[in-house]
Amino acid sequence: MTAGAERVAASLGSEAGAARSIAPPAGGWWLAVSTSGPDWSLWLGRSSAAQPPFADADQRCLLGVRGQPRDLVGVMAELLASRGLAVTDLAGLVVDSGPGSFTSLRMGLAAVRALAWAQALPVATVCSLDAMAAQALHGGASPRLACVLPARRGWWYVATYQADLHNLAPNLATVLASRETAQVATAHLARHLTQRLGDRDWTGLGPLDPADRRELGAGDWVADAGPRAAWMAYVASQLPNWTTAQLAVPEYLAVSEAEAAAATAIPETASDAISQFSL
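Structure (tokenized):
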């Protein structure tokens, strides 16, 4: 049994063990998968390459997927083969935990969890909005930052960050810890961001159209399509603990009770509410 398998087996040995964290793999090859945004992406590299500019690593981007059937496992296999690798050569997996597209997110999680189970690999789950924040901040964005991704029609997943950032790598955990998340209707987005960040001098990241961006009052808005697997790997490299396939679950964002009450269709049960107002 490999060292990685022993760690996972120990973690899954009991109910109490299943809740324990796993130390990140110190070396070897990592495969990262992001499927929560409008585009999907994959990243393959050694753990030492999980730092910008991601030298000596391979990436794949599948444009405009968002819930459409794609052979994700096939692309993963092709990416590994391009380096002459097999799944048995992997030391760890990184997966996008959302929030994001309901179907796409679960397709990515299902593929990564199956591989992690089969190979007894540790998994790092990374919030899609945190990966976007890491990319923007590394590019010199304001430490007062908003990241958005499309939710259901007329709604957005929104994260705001307000850490005093000077050096990204040593302060990334502090920056991400400042995150406040919400699901916000388009009509209320400008007010929500103004309440969180003020009416100017902050940076936005996400696939808003130009007309919507002009209404938000951001000092700078980067019209990016969404999270990228390379930045998932970077955030994962900064995490103190990873987890198991069993605990690699999606991140939910629900609207407030007031917003839910104002929706046109009110769910009849709690489970229906989770389905309608979460991912």
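The CA atoms of residues 215 and 222 lie 14 Å apart. The first strand starts at residue 29 and ends at 34.
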